[in-house]
């Protein structure tokens, strides 16, 4: 009497495409394996289906395969039958480990279409050769796929993936989704106006632009600042696509022009949107962030807080002590409300003096004038460079016409070498023009701020926290906490306004 062999049929398909059909690829594999088993005396197929639909053969992280190996360890399987070797694995190292595990468990392995088994030496040799070719084929397919994607993007074509806000995917192309595109344009306009991502988020929410839903997650009530920052930093909105480490001109239409985008990048890179280099933050509750300095080591005093019995206590602490410890700086925690009140009182006293107020106004106007002069100088330099390059290109073109095809090819190569793919000269010039236009608008803001100084106590009382912070950032150069933490020194933008002796003591200080 022949010994009965319990046969487990394993089937796999890399993608889920077509699995919804009545007779799919997994069914076809199982049918062929059943036909082979029926021809072997004493063999019988197990009822359990070991089928992985939509799982790659590049690794072994597959649910049905895991169940198969568990049943083998439990002694429930005598033979594993597959349609082809690569259904079990496309990785030679993984395949070898699988066969070793089957051999140790006394389980045979059979491939139906390749017509071999592990029962003899020739079958094992054939098996290893086929597994090697399967891994080679997988590597070639992956390489071809990467090359195809790279080539497609080089030509500016969309290759799929997560569709950016402001676009929709239509026939494998990016098309503008006008309602969302309006959101993107508004975000850029608000950022150029207010220069802070947190403020952009608030205005978008107040204007009825909720954050678009993220797949698989509940709709967010508030704009995630990281997501909004990603929009403002994404060159794709200028009609470009990433290809490796470079950006190339895409086939899709831009939502914002290059000048607007570059101006936004200049704001992000240079200002960090805080007073004189303060790091960007969403917390507007600390009026002196970016302004307060430790008198002991000269480092910034950064916002900090503690919570006790449900009450939040705000402090400023020395950045050096925070990072290195008390061995580097012994500065103690500084109560935020107390030091902020002292600074405001100092400003109220200073603004009551016409002389000091005039000096602050002069400093504000001088600072703006310097920024406008720098932008104008940059514009003039770019204009000269652009004119020079255009004249050079025209001269080269005339030479090329006289020199024939070889000279024309050399001209094209020379022009390509001179092009900056990140920011062509005309776009740089347009960005500077827009920056100058923004500075013209800023001139009006400066004059309004100077008018506020005439009624500082009343105006301050009705200002929002954000407006107060921006006003302090405009007129205060820095606030220094004395080394003994008993007094502070407020230095306004104009050095002559705040002599070194002009300081305030903390209440209760000896």
Question: Would you mind describing this structure in some detail?
Answer:
The chain has 510 residues and is α/β, with parallel strands linked by helices. It folds into 3 domains: 5-152, Resolvase, N-terminal catalytic domain (Rossmann fold); 167-273, Alpha-Beta Complex (Hect, E3 ligase catalytic domain fold), CATH 3.90.1750; 284-367 and 426-510, no CATH class. It is built from 16 helices and 17 strands. Strands 1, 2, 3, 4, 5 and 6 form a 6-stranded mixed beta sheet that branches. It has a 4-stranded mixed beta sheet with strand order 11-15-16-17. Strand 9 and strand 10 (246-249) form a beta hairpin. Helix 6 (178-194) packs across helix 7 (197-206). The protein is elongated, with a radius of gyration of 35 Å. The protein starts with a strand and ends in a 5-residue tail after the last strand.
